[in-house]
Design a protein that fits this description.
35 helices, alpha/beta, globular, 11% strand, seven-stranded parallel sheet, single chain, six-stranded parallel sheet, Rossmann fold, disordered N terminus, 50% helix, 5 domains, Arc Repressor Mutant, subunit A
Length: 740
């Protein structure tokens, strides 16, 4: 199929379709490669304009572009966004299980008639024979694969169905160009994607800078819950009415933080797999419609929300990998305006994550340990955080360019010389036969006469108490810095025992200067630092009163039209209106991000408001209007019940239903709560030892137990070496047997 543009010049088409006068970064070159029929691989950070790279050529080329996307919510947002730029809703559709047969028939009719230029589908949609047959007979201009990192097993969000995309495209036939796009991909992931999709020898690769210079990165020490909650409230309160996301590991934390924010006057809501689908959908819509300002979301569940004006992302729990962290912080400032990314870090959170790795397969265990080591290094580094992130993705960066856009560059940490203490720490590892975890080593150097120290006669060994009288936090930092600098390593398989490395042995033979950081006094810096981040996150506009009025009008119009506010006009466009006061359709079309179609569809009430405001306030409008350049659940439950009856391993059940193990177990709890028995003894016998089973079952049997919350159970049972996964499994067994 020969792709012929309907506009003679890409810039003309860009302005006509989207209201932008210039392309960003590699956008134009990427689109030109697609027009040449070349397979194209695009790595562009969140907010860099990935979607335009397939949306514009999709609108310009003959036929319909297939866009493969993993999330139904994301598809709907993209379709709404594309439709908002024109006056024909048939120009973009999505095709997935949420549609009725009548709606599916209409979508296919619009594709056949040539009205639909972009069709968003999930990879599962491609596997259906009737769809493959339909696409085989359709005029497909090209295939775009969004979130392409899902293809790679080394990616942070691997999805097995993504690895079958090439197979499905081969069945459809035709020589269709492919464009694969992702926001995060290490060199290893990049290679895996290209190989799996069998991209042509002359394929084009475009790697944009991973630097998001509008984001501010900060890591704070995570204290007690009340202290950390207070800090979160302070951050949110400095940006009243702005959109933000708080990421957590457990649904309990999501509920608690959302409730704490609500009682402090913030419109907040939880978002996790434990909520029923209707509640999740309603919460998501309220966030998009700005009825909710802050979403507290579980990291495991993720969010398919493409909201451009998120001003802050807070991590209450540190993520499991740098890629997860980068992807999640990347939800801030997608409109090019400022965003603050604040993570709370405690070493005990790393220990908790490591405990979960013990029962994983060897390869997964080693991979997980390596990823967490990198997260730990990022959290504790005293160097520029932006430089660390970019280096992780293979990009060189001079930290002089950071411009105090991270906490380490804004507040450089004091460092102390610790060469002699590192030597003592390494000697302690050897003295204890490289066979004990960090906790035991710290107790040894501090000279704590614990039961273990006495029973094993460690009190008589050389080096016992060498650090007596010094702070425990100092020795904890010394051992962790030794880990980060590869002088020692942690053996996850043998319960976190510390082993000395070749580099550590070399250090002992020839000690060198070894400086470790002293943490900031965050209590003193807190007020100034939060205010600085808040100031960065808000752009200064000429007329703040008009901006507020425009935002109120946008919210009213969004409710009237039942669409998210940002579909009408994004924040940068409103900021420009509040600076330039457009009062005619022609002037409105020159506002950045306002296409001709968008102006015709939405501008009238805004023009009326601005004209009235100008008259009432006797405003002298700028004479030269300058354009700124800115930069299905029920079916799933049946599948799970039938698979458990056939004694299929839970990992396979989760994979087959596109669920994580956590999500699967929440589904199973929902099933047993509804009165259906699930016998998972076949799986528990393999995965849970008898001691853990007995301890956990007895815990739930306690007649005084007020809740079956697994996180609360974990706080009691962790001292017995029972993992949260074991607790969740036994909880399902307990509820199934006792409640049903």
């Amino acid at each position: 199929m020969t792709a012929k543009p309907v506009a003679t010049h890409l810039e003309d088409a860009l302005f006509e379709q989207f209201g932008f006068k210039t392309f960003k970064g590699h956008q134009k070159a990427i689109i030109e490669a697609l027009f040449e029929g070349r397979d194209t691989f695009v790595i562009m950070p969140t907010g860099g304009g990935k979607s335009l790279c397939y949306q514009l050529p999709g609108l310009m080329m003959d036929g319909c572009a297939l866009v493969i996307s993993p999330l139904i919510a994301l598809m709907k947002n993209q379709v709404d966004s594309i439709r908002s730029y024109g006056d024909n809703d048939a120009v973009a559709h999505f095709l997935n299980s949420s549609l009725s047969k009548t709606q599916m028939r209409q979508v296919k009719e619009d594709i056949t008639s040539g009205e639909t230029k972009l069709l968003f589908v999930a990879p599962e949609t491609l596997t259906k024979e009737e769809n493959i047959e339909f696409f085989r007979e359709s005029n497909i201009s090209f295939v775009a694969i969004d979130e392409a990192h899902c293809i790679s097993e080394w990616g942070h969000d691997f999805r097995p169905e993504y690895r079958r995309i090439r197979e499905m495209l081969d069945q459809i036939g035709h020589q269709i160009p492919i464009i694969a796009l992702t926001a995060t991909a290490t060199p290893k992931v990049q290679s895996d994607i290209v190989k799996n999709l069998r991209m042509g020898e002359n394929h084009a690769t475009f790697v944009s800078s991973f630097n998001r210079d509008n984001l501010y990165y900060e890591v704070r020490p995570k204290g007690k819950k009340e202290y950390t909650f207070k800090q979160i409230i302070q951050v949110v309160k400095t940006m009243p009415g702005e959109s933000g996301i708080v990421y957590v590991q457990s649904r309990k934390s999501a509920e608690e933080i959302a409730e704490t924010l609500r009682v402090n006057g913030v419109k907040a809501a939880p978002y996790h797999a434990g909520l029923d689908p209707k509640t999740r959908s309603r919460t998501q819509d309220e966030f998009l419609m700005e009825d909710v300002d802050v979403i507290c979301a579980t990291i495991a569940f993720g969010m398919g929300i493409d909201k451009p004006d998120v001003r802050f992302v807070i991590h209450y729990d540190i993520p499991k990998s740098i890629e997860n962290y980068y992807q999640e912080t990347g939800r801030a400032g997608r409109d090019g305006m400022g965003g603050s990314c604040i993570a709370f870090y405690a070493y005990k959170d790393i220990l908790k994550l490591e405990k979960f790795l013990r029962d994983k397969p060897l390869m997964e265990r080693e991979m997980g340990a390596q990823l967490m080591q990198e997260v730990m290094a990022y959290s504790e580094t005293t160097a520029c955080r932006r430089r660390f992130l970019l280096h992780y993705f293979g990009e060189e960066y001079d930290d002089k360019n950071c411009g105090k856009r991270c906490d380490n560059c804004r507040h450089p940490k004091e460092r102390i010389e610790a060469k002699d203490k590192v030597v003592e720490a390494l000697k302690a590892v050897i003295e204890l036969d490289q066979n004990y975890p960090l906790k035991t080593l710290i107790e040894f150097v501090l000279g704590k006469e614990t039961k273990q120290m006495k029973d094993y006669k460690f009190v008589k060994r050389k080096g016992f108490g060498v650090g007596k009288g010094e702070e425990e936090v100092l020795w904890s930092s010394i051992f962790r810095q030794a880990l980060l600098n590869n002088l020692v390593r942690k053996d996850i398989e043998s319960y976190g025992t510390i082993k000395i490395t070749e580099e550590g042995e070399a250090f002992l033979k020839k000690p060198r200067s070894f400086q470790i950081p002293i943490d900031h006094d965050f209590e003193k810096e807190l007020a100034a630092d939060i205010q600085g981040a808040a100031d960065d996150a808000r752009a200064v506009v000429l007329d703040k009163a008009l901006l507020l009025a425009l935002k109120d009008l946008r919210k009213k119009e969004a409710k009237r039209l039942d669409i998210p506010p940002f579909v009408i006009f994004q924040d940068p466009s409103l900021h420009e209106m509040a600076t330039r006061y457009p009062i005619t359709l022609e002037e409105m079309k020159n506002v950045n991000g306002v296409s001709i179609g968008k102006a015709r569809r939405y501008a009238t009430p805004f023009l009326m408001l601005i004209e009235k405001y100008v008259e009432e306030n006797d405003i002298d409008r700028p004479s030269d209007f300058v354009v700124k350049q800115v930069a299905n659940k029920s079916k799933k439950k049946i599948n799970i019940i039938q698979a458990v009856d056939r004694k299929i391993p839970l990992e396979d059940i989760a994979s087959g239903n596109q669920l994580s193990m956590d999500e699967l177990m929440e589904e199973m709890v929902s099933i047993v709560h509804s009165g259906t028995k699930l016998n998972i003894d076949y799986y528990i016998e393999e995965e849970v030892d008898e001691y853990s089973l007995e301890e956990t079952y007895d815990y739930f049997m306690d007649p005084d137990r007020e809740t079956d919350d697994p996180d609360i159970a974990f706080q009691t049972l962790k001292e017995e070496d029972v993992t949260i996964e074991e607790i969740k499994l036994v909880r399902i067994k307990f509820l199934s047997e006792m409640a049903n």
